[in-house]
Amino acid sequence: MTSTAAVPPPRATYRRLSVEERRAQLLLAALGLFAHRAPDEVSLDEVAVAAGVSRPLVYRYFPGGRQQLYEAALGSAAEELTQCFTEPETGPPTERVARVLDRYLRFVDEHDTGFSALLRGGSVVETSRTTTIVDGVRRAAADEILRHLGRMGGTGEKPAGPRLRMMVRSWIAAVEAASLIWLDDGKQPAAAELRGWLVDHLIALLTATAATDPETATVVHDLLALERSAGPAGQLAERVIPVVVEAAHLLPAAPASD
């Protein structure tokens, strides 16, 4: 009887990563660790283990050590998050903002560790570089909102005044806080519901600021002219007007006629 030599099992296919792919792999592993602990508590050995590589390889890509890796990881998350804010200037402004928020919340959902590292971690390490990275995301977001409000100083536009800019930056801060709370609460309520509430919040802030700031009043007037009854502004008006009517007794009494 002729014996047949055993056929060895096929070896697992190994694919060498490009420089860009390897760097992205290391940044992703680092973001996952920095999202849950302070940067000075994360060692390069842990990053290497999380990425499935050797410590010398981590140093090859980030010779500046942990701080360089941390800043690069923040920059990577910031760049991707900033891209979420880009939206063509077509359609009613509040519907554009809703689409921006849909992308933003999808990023938060799919990259929750990176998002947490960007916003929570950025305030832990007190360096000018990390502060600049985090604040750059906030400023980019504010500039995009002001652009859709017609106040970025483009052709035929006026740049935003201090009250309007402060209001938009305050809203961006509220969006950040709501997103982090959303992650802490197990991503409840549903993203679509959170997005709707955040758009309502922006409209409400604009309306309140318009009551005392002529520039914002002009912005709101121009914005409402572009809105649809079925859009966010129209739906909010339908819900809010009955509530406002209940406050009619707070208005000054009309002077008695002779």
TrEMBL record:
**Domain HTH tetR-type: start-end pairs:** 20-80
Q: Name one GO molecular function term.
A: transcription cis-regulatory region binding
UniProt keyword list: DNA-binding, Transcription, Transcription regulation
Q: Sorted alphabetically, which Pfam families does this protein's record hold?
A: TetR_C_46, TetR_N
Q: Which residues bind DNA?
A: 43-62
Task: Write down the PROSITE patterns for this protein, in alphabetical order.
Answer: HTH_TETR_2 (PS50977)
The transmembrane segments are none
Q: Does the keyword rRNA processing apply?
A: no
Q: What is this protein called?
A: TetR family transcriptional regulator
